Amino acid sequence: MFKMSEIKELIKLVDQSSLQELEIENEGSRLLIRKPNKTESLFVNTAPQHAYSQAYPTAVNQPQAPMNSSNAAKEMNSTLHTIVSPMVGTFYQSSSPGSAPFVSVGAKVGVKTAVCIIEAMKLMNEIEAEVNGEIVEILVENGQLVEYGQPLFLVKPE
User: Fold this and answer.
1) Of 22-31, 44-53, 111-120, which range is least confident?
2) CA distances (Å), 133 to each of 78, 105, 157, in order?
3) Please, are residues 3 and 49 in contact by the beta-carbon 8 Å criterion?
4) Which domains are seen in the chain, by residue range?
5) d(CA 70, CA 89)
6) Are 147 and 36 in contact (CB under 8 A)?
7) Residue 23 β-bridge partners
8) Fewest CB atoms within 10 Å of the CB: 32, 54, 56, 158?
9) What are phi and psi of 64, to 5 degrees?
C-alpha cells in the first residue's frame, strides 16, 4: 500500500518533470499517475491515511469517472460559476465525519459561505463559494483526491 505522503511526492515529481505518465506496482498495489490533458481529470484511487477519511469507507478504492457529458454541458454553460479546488488535497463535504454537509444541491450560498474542506498536508482548508447563488451540482465525491483547478461545484449565480 502506498502512503499518501509518497503519492503526493510522486505527483510533485511527475508534475515538475517532462514525464507524462508514471506507473508503479508495490506489494500488490498499483499506482498510475498521468498528467491530465485539457479534457480529462486525474484521479488517484488509494486507501486514505487520514482518520477522517477512514470514516467514509464508501469513498475508498472506488473507481472515479470523469465528468459525464451532462456535467460537461453544464460546465460549458457560461451562466454557471464553477468553484474549483485551489490546491491538491482531499475533498470533504463536512467539517467532521457524521456532521451535515456544508452544502447540497439546491442550497443557497453567499460569497463567504463555506462549501467544503480540502485537506492538504494535514491542514483543513475551508473553501468559500466566492459568489452568491444556488448550488446546481457537486462534481466530486466525499473523500476524493482533487487536483489544483479541478471543478468541485457548479453554482447558478444570482
Assistant:
1) 44-53
2) 14, 11, 4
3) yes
4) 62-157 (2.40.50.100)
5) 26
6) yes
7) 32
8) 158
9) -105, 130
